[in-house]
Design brief:
The chain is of the alpha+beta class. Helix content is 26%, strand content 33%. It contains six helices and 15 strands. β2 (26-30) and β3 form a beta hairpin.
């Protein structure tokens, strides 16, 4: 997926000059007399000349107004030195609204361009946005004696989905975990010394099979599952290995795995089978 940034402006030539001087963007090409493509950022920026008072596109035909306004979609410009970048933008015609302030993750200043659009100029420090996420995660190998603890995590993580499907049965959960339990291929996920989930990844034919990946409800929604799965997939990619996984039909895990590049290759009454091919190999 690619992201394109489109900015309505009342005067195309003035806008080209501002974004060149303020942020060092370069005019790549003109798309007719009223549009320009600017490059130099991680996403192309398209400046679209639209006269003030003309109706905006979409169902809400609100007239364009280039006085200072709240911009639901705005630019975050990431720089090495926020103070010098702010001085440069202001010299080019930007309005400084909030001087740079320091946070755990970095520094940020709020500005607007000459056309009323909000812009944030930001500088990451230390761990950047990682400072806002959960503490560092640790993988801790499981042992035979950990089966009951693993089962408790599985039941807690799966209970809501199974109840929604009318299939919550602790004894069935026990049997399914027991049927695939291999301590040598199972790891707890720990954060700040607390066990918040576990995963099981084992060799399977020409690749790997992710038998389990569970995060307790209290730790869900914090990106823990995505962080763990992303790391496992990067390792599999470095070794040229495909990864297989099964997901409970109609559970949220289906969207989660598809989002990470898994494609459906089979199904049964209750489960969907997925494969994430190795790099350069089709499903």
């Amino acid at each position: 997926m690619r992201i394109l940034v489109n900015i309505d402006v009342p005067d195309l030539e003035q806008a080209i000059g501002f974004y060149e001087r303020a942020f060092g963007l370069a005019l790549h090409r003109r798309l007719g007399p009223k549009a320009a493509e600017m490059l130099g950022a991680s996403a192309p920026i398209y400046l679209l000349e639209k006269a003030a008072g003309t109706p905006a596109a979409g169902a809400v035909r609100q007239p364009r107004d280039y006085a200072r306004h709240w911009t639901p979609v705005h630019l975050d410009v990431v720089v090495e030195d926020v103070d010098s970048a702010v001085r440069r933008a202001v010299a080019a015609g930007a309005r400084l609204e909030d001087p740079a302030a320091t946070h755990d993750w970095g520094r940020i200043a709020h500005l607007s361009d000459p056309f009323g659009h909000g812009i944030c100029i930001m500088q990451f420090l230390g761990r950047g946005y990682d400072a806002l996420t959960a503490s560092a995660l640790r993988d801790v190998p499981a042992a035979d004696a950990d089966f009951e603890a693993l089962l408790a995590i599985r039941i807690e993580a799966m209970k809501e989905s199974l109840e929604r499907l009318g299939r919550f049965d602790p004894e069935r959960a026990r049997a399914r975990l027991r049927s695939t339990f291999q301590p040598g291929h199972t790891w707890f996920i720990e954060r700040d010394g607390a066990r918040i989930g576990f995963y099981a990844l084992r060799p399977d034919g020409d690749g790997l099979r992710l038998d389990h990946l569970y995060v307790v409800p209290a730790a869900q929604g914090l990106g823990v599952g995505g962080q763990v799965l992303g790391r496992l997939l990067r390792d599999a990619d470095s070794r040229g290995l495909p990864v297989r996984v099964g997901a409970l039909r109609d559970s949220d895990s289906n969207r989660f795995y598809r989002r990470h590049g898994f494609v459906q290759v089979g199904e049964s009454e209750w489960d969907i089978d997925y494969l994430r091919p190795a790099p350069g190999r089709g499903a």
